Amino acid sequence: MASAWDEVDKGKLLERFAIEIGPALLFVAALLIVNLNVATILFVVACAATATYSWYQTGHFPYIPAGMVLMAAVFGAATIAFGNAFYIEFRATLVNAGGAAALTAGLFTGHLFLKNALQSGFRLTDSAWRTLTWRMALYLALMAILNEIVRRAFSTEIWAVFKAVSPVLNLVFLAINWPLIRANLLPRGAASDTARGNHRARPHRDTPQPAPRPQ
Fold first, then answer.
1. What is the DSSP code (8-state) at residue 185?
2. In 9-85, where does DSSP find H-type helix?
3. Structural domain spans, the chain
4. What is the pTM of this model?
5. Which among 212, 11, 19, 199 has a CA at the least distance from the CA of 122?
């Protein structure tokens, strides 16, 4: 009998972790070895590379990663133009706070943005996705506050190290919420609550319906 962990696509989760931590590690290395301007340029290039990879993998234009690249480019340009790390540091606050606001707005408008982002790694019931989305919104809000504390209280170098290791906190968040995920995991080929409802509502009369594929 397969365990709950077997229903999780561990390769997808590790890939997402690498995409999150890669640009941050590159930024830290360049900042410590070269200078802020070079680190900022490499960070923007790395963000663009991860967005391009996402586009290649999914075959769909990655609107959210593309938005992150645009923000990195704008705040990175300001950092270089004014010679002030405030802009690249504040970008992280804005991304986390904006993510929390977007997830919350999605819940009130019936959109499960977190489900769209993570269901390639594991599939849950819609009620579980809603609970996990509330928790993720709170987590992102706390990360925005923590980023403000670190960037105001410490040097740019220490802030950069904090940003490089902060993706590890995402794994901690996942571990804390594993009981919720485990209790509501669906088989990889299964549809969500909404998909099953839509599937029943619009049966095809001529050919058998294939199992829904992950988006």
1. E
2. 10-33, 36-58, 63-82
3. 4-191
4. 0.78
5. 11
